[in-house]
Amino acid sequence: MLALGIGVQRLVVELDAKVVIGLITSTSGSNKPYSPLLNDCRYLLRRFLQTRVVHVFREGNRCADALARMGSNMAEEFLVFDNPPSPDVLYFVNTDAAGVLYNRSSFCDLIVMPVWLSTGKQKPEPKSAEEHIADGMENGLRFTDCRWRRGLSATNINFTHSPFWVQIWGLPFELMSDDVGKKFGNNIGKFIEVDQRARQSNQAKFMRIGVDLQLDKPLKRGDSPSGIDEVIDAIPTWVSEEMNEGLNRNFTRKERKLWHLNLPAKIKIFAWRACVNGLPTMEAIYTRGISQTKICPVCRNEAETLDYAPLDCAFSSLVWCLWSENPLSIHGIKKSFLDSTIFILAYATLQDLELFFFIAWAIWFSRNRLVHEGCGLPFTQVWHLAKSSVDDFACSATWDLSQSRAPLSSWSPPPPGFHKINVNGASSESDSCSSVGVVIRDCWGQVVAALCKPLQACYPAELMEIMAIEQGVLLAQELQLPSVIVESDSSNAILAIHEKATGSSFGHLIQEILQANESFETCHFKHLSRNFNSVAHELAQHARRTRSQYLWKGVMPPVVASFLQADMM
């Protein structure tokens, strides 16, 4: 309304809320309580000669955010200027609000600035660098520490200190110098350098300096397995002492075969963590103060340690008894988990060791289900889970992928009784427009209906694919088709519908698609290759080129006749 009041003809609306953008730009109706407000917004936007609603990150919307906060905290009003006022009139209440909306190549016709209306308060004198540093170290400025952009390596970490970037907000640009950054850095930790790229522009809002900070918990020194000590990439300081003790173990050449077993990735990770005493047992989380008890949640008899949980618990013993060829039982061995692993590796086969890890993982899986879901598996089912996992993995490892089925070479018609809906969305930033294409065909490949529709703004590709699916489903619902198959070349859009992602930025469109889905007897959403979606793609491009909407029912669209014939060859 403000832009209309001053005669603006071309308008760009930038919002940091994707959900609101989706609601405003959606062309479908809604019975939500805020629909009248959305309709008013759409009506006002259509009154401009050219309108764009785009998304910006919250950092890029700092000025509007500051205006909103100032408006909620002050009784005064804001002034709107057709031309920027002189600098001596302005005084920004918050340094984070020291940004303006400016004219970009004469595209926008308005400059809005927050101003301080005189209430008897005088503009304070500029502070010196020393005063800013003193105030900042106490409570005046905002500090944000972030990850070291070059990563951590064994050459620049000394196990008690680590480099970090620190962002300092609220500092005037004329004070963003190397000397001031060095003073700040030495007050925080040990100064390293000032990031020159963060203050290249005179519109910079913060200064970033590299400092060397002391770690709350020093990293342990010690030898580690081959390859581990080459690079420490952002290693966390909360690595457990037990894990470090396991890493410091000097494995023999024979014991290193553990990491070359023919096992799935999740079983290898479990085996590694079990061997280095890194599983989150009740005793481990009790020691860290996370849990109030360390008693085994299955038998309720003893503390759940790494050796007790997978081997010695009464429930675990029942599972191990079902393994008649268990090398540990045959030799009467009862050792820790790591020692049992080394014994099987030395006196049994690699297949026995693989089954040993599968059984231990299945026992741990059942215990996790009991703790987190309240329903564990019977011991016989745990045994069958381990055996079936071994057989399934062995079977998958023998597949001959070189003789896989030849891919489809063209579009395929739906089965009898079904109609296939192919959809596609197109966007063009150069033309500032988007479009959708829809074609519905029967089991003989004949066109039942087709649609091409332009939109008056450029939307993201994923949003366009969702909108194209919505248009296809609504068209099929209008034709009262009983059973349909919806195909799109966007795997993300199909996945979002399968997962019912109603909480995403385009969740309102997903919700409408799911509601329309209930009107069909059968409805499937599938992904297909872009090479086989040429008809819907050409319809979307035709709508973008002509800026016109077309609907065909029972006839072949002339613009895609050649593509339809190619699909049936």
UniProtKB/TrEMBL annotation:
It comes from the Eukaryota. GO terms for molecular function: nucleic acid binding; RNA-DNA hybrid ribonuclease activity. Residues 2-70, 422-543 form the RNase H type-1 domain. Residues 253-320 form the Reverse transcriptase zinc-binding domain. Pfam families: RVT_3 (PF13456), zf-RVT (PF13966). This is RNase H type-1 domain-containing protein. It comes from Lithocarpus litseifolius.
